[in-house]
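Slide 14.
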Amino acid sequence: MAEGFNETYLTLAGYARFNNLRYLFFFMFLTVYIFISFTDSLIVFLICSQRSLHKPMYVFIAALLLNSLTCSTTIYPKLLSDFLSERPVVSRSACLCQAFFIYFLGGSAYMLLSVMAFDRYVSICEPLRYATLVSPSAVAALLLLAWLLPAGLVAGAALLASPLRLCRFGLDRLYCNIYSFVKLSCGSTLVNNVYGLLCNATIMFLSIVFVVFSYSRILLVCLQQSGSVRGKAVRTCLPHLLVFINYSVCTVFEIVNNRMQANVDAVVPAVMSVSIVIITTLFNPVVYGLKTQEISKRVKKLLCYRRTEG
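Slide 15: predicted structure.
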């Protein structure tokens, strides 16, 4: 391999761990990607087209699923082509670009989940002020904050990583992330690591604190209400809590995976990266399609209508 090639391209060595089963994994990921694309697009279409779903809660769900669909498109097409490749590689710039979108969309998902917790908190604890606090302009401002803040923070991390001189050119992963890219550097990465920790703390920790605070207040209010009110609150809050817990667990595993992979067998980071991709992207449409009563009802109605028309 020419020296210039090594200076420009990185090898995604994680695929070697699945070499004997790569066609099986190709069809598995293709099936998952088709399912995610169809279900996310269907739910977003329903929310946009049905006037009765033009409410803040459903707007935030549509934003989260659009976020998930974009993240899936950032990961799966490259993943599928690499499973069919004899030697999966990625250019330095493309690796950083993919890492930026994965981190940015992951961070914005956390922010969106915090915004959804705020929406549920106001709806249940401050119902008389709901129209004022969650107005259309407030919804637009919250959505912009949820996307622009992570984009700015992650852009800073990508810019700090871009000038680093690399001494190694193999990633034990199936896709790029900034931390793994930085670890290939042969110089000091203290600034990159500190900045990365600050980004994680800003997005993840603050989001968790806000969600825990919101649902603690919701729980206190529900305990003082009748059983029917508590049941309604559970039905509207449970999908959000399930998705938030899923994101939190997968994010913790990703952080641990990044920082401990030097002490474990090389197959572990590859397997964990596969699991994290599937779980985080597949969980959202399943939960919101099945557990959100109004969306589930409309999905069934649309599919039954299409079947009848056919």
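Speaker note: The chain is about 80% helix and 5% strand.
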